[in-house]
Amino acid sequence: MPQSSRWGRKQTLPLRARIIRSIRDFFEERGFLQVETPSRIPAPAPEPYIDALPSRDWYLQTSPELAMKRLLAVGHERIFQICHCWRDEERGRFHLPEFTLLEWYRTGADYTHLMTDCEELLRSVAAAVPGSARISFQGTEVDLAQPAERLSVREAFRRYTPLSAEEALRCDRFDELMAVEIEPRLGIGQPTILYDYPAARGALARRKSDDPGVAERFELYLCGVELANAFSELTDPTEQEERFRLDREERRLAGKDPYPLPRPFLDDLKTLPPCAGIALGVDRLVMLLLDLPSIDQAVAFTPEEL
Amino acid sequence: MYTSADLRKGLKITLDNEPYLVTSFDFTKPGKGQALYRTKMKNMITGTTLDRTYRSGESFEPANLEDRSMTYLYKEDTHYTFMDSQTFDQVSMDESALGDSKFFLIDNMQVEVLLYREKAIGVNLPNFVNLRVTATEPWAKGDTSGSDSKPATVETGYTLRVPPFIEEGELIVIDTRTGEYSTRVKG
Predict the structure, then answer these.
(1) Smallest CA–CA separation between A91 and chain B, in Å?
(2) Checking DSSP bridges between strand A149-152 and strand A211-222, what pairing results, if any?
(3) Residue B38: helix, strand or coil by DSSP?
(4) By a Cβ cutoff of 8 Å, what residues of chain B touch chain A?
(5) Chain-chain contact of B57 with A255 (C-beta, under 8 angstroms)
(6) Is residue A66 a contact partner of residue A262, using CB atoms and an 8 Å limit?
C-alpha cells in the first residue's frame, strides 16, 4: 500500500502542517488564546479506563484538561491548546499511545456551543485541506457542509441495539455495544453528535438539571470514527471530589494505580465559572481529511518505528 | 503469560489446550470506555478459525511451538515418520496433519518439523523439491489447440500441470509453497 510507505508519509506531513495551521487560525480569529501547560504532571484525572504513563514519580498527561480549567478559574475566557498526550497500552488502527490532542474551553457556555464550534471548525479546516466539504474516508462519505445529526445515547441504543442504555450498563455491555453496534453507524453522510451520556459515564461533565440521570457530554463522529469528546464542565468541587474518589476506588479494585487526588485543581474549581470544554484527536482528523488507511500514516513516526 | 495488550497479528497462544495463531487483530476503545481486543484465530492443528473478543487485563498462555530439523524416514499406512539426526528421537505424524506436504516428501529429506508439546503438528519443507514424472501424455507435435500445459503425475502420486515438452521419467522441480511446476532438471 503506497500510503503506508515512508515515501507516502513524506507527502502527508506538509498537509498535516496545513491542517494544524488552519486549526490555529480558526481559534485565533474567534478570540481564543493559545496556551501551553506542562506535559508532566503529579496527578492525572483518575479515569477508570484511561491509564497514564509514569514519569519518575509523576505522570505524562493523558489530557491537559485539569490545567486548562485552572486557567479558566483565574479569569481566562477562551483558550485552546494543541499538545501531545500519552495513554498507556492504547494501540490500534485509530490509536497511538502518544498522540496530538486539540482542546478548547469557553466560559459562559455549555456543550451546545461546542457542538456549533465543531461544525464550524470542520468546515473551516476542510476548506483548507482537502479543499472540499465532502470528504471520503476509506469508501465512506461525509458532507461537512451538512449540520451534524444530533443523536442522544438513549436513542442510539434504542435504534441500533437490543438493549436500552441503562440495561447495557447494568449487564456491563455498554462499551461493547457502543464499539461494535453503534459507533460504526455514526457520522455517515453527515457528522453525528452523540449526546447525553448516562451519569455513570459522565466523567467530568455536569448532570442535566432537568434529567439528572444523564450528563451533558457529547462525542463527535465522522465515518464511524470518534473524533472528539466534550462536556458542559462540572464546576461543583464537592461532586467532583466525590466522583474522583469513586473512580480512584474503581481503579484500585481493578488493580490499577489510583493516582493522587489533584488537590490544586479541586481548590480552583471553587472559582471556576460555568464553562464547556472539548478534546479533539488531531491525528485522527488528519487521517480522516486525507483518507489515510490508519492513524499510523498521519504521524511522522509510530512507536514501532523508533 | 501474555496479556490482552500483547495481542497482535501473528501471536501464537494456547486456547482450550490447542495452539492458535492470531490471524487478524483490531483494538477498539469507545470514548472513555473499556478497551476491546477483537481477534480472529486459526487453530494450528485443525485449521479451523474462530472470532474472539477480549477485554484488557486478560491473560493467555503462549503456544510454545518448536521447529526441529529432522530427516524424513518412511511412511507406514497413513503415518509418516521423521528422525532427529542429533538425538535419534523419532516422531510420526498422520497424513491429515501434513496436508499437501505429504506429496513433496522424499526419503532422507531434511525438513523442519513443527512440534507442539512434543507432538508433531506440521512440517516446513525446502522451497523446491525434485520429483520424477511417472505418467504424462506424450507431446503431440502437430497439436495446434494452443494449450501450453498438460497434466502429469509424479512419483508421490501428486498431479500438476507441466509444459507440453515434459516426458515420462524426467525429473522436474516443484515449488512446494505453490505446488506448481518450476523447471525441469537437465541431465
Answers:
(1) 7
(2) unpaired
(3) strand
(4) 5, 26-36, 53, 56-57
(5) yes
(6) yes
A33-34 and A78-86 strand pairing = parallel
Instruction: Collapse the DSSP code of A21 into the 3-class scheme (helix H, G, I; strand E, B; otherwise coil) and give the result.
Output: helix
Residues A87-112: tens digit of each pLDDT = 998 999 999 999 999 999 999 999 99
On whether any CB of chain B is under 8 Å from the CB of A179, the answer is yes
Going along chain A from its start, the domains and CATH numbers come out as 3-146+222-305 (3.30.930.10)
- Closest-CA residue of A relative to B57 is A254
CB < 8 Å to B27, chain A = 90-93, 95
* ipTM of the shown complex: 0.82
Verdict on whether the full-model pTM lies above 0.90: no
Q: Which residue of B has its CA nearest to A230?
A: B31
pLDDT along chain B (187 residues), means of 10: 90 92 92 91 90 91 92 93 92 88 93 90 92 89 71 94 93 94 86
* Alpha-carbon span A156 to B133, nearest angstrom: 65
User: Residue B104 corresponds to which cell in the numbers above?
Assistant: 513433496
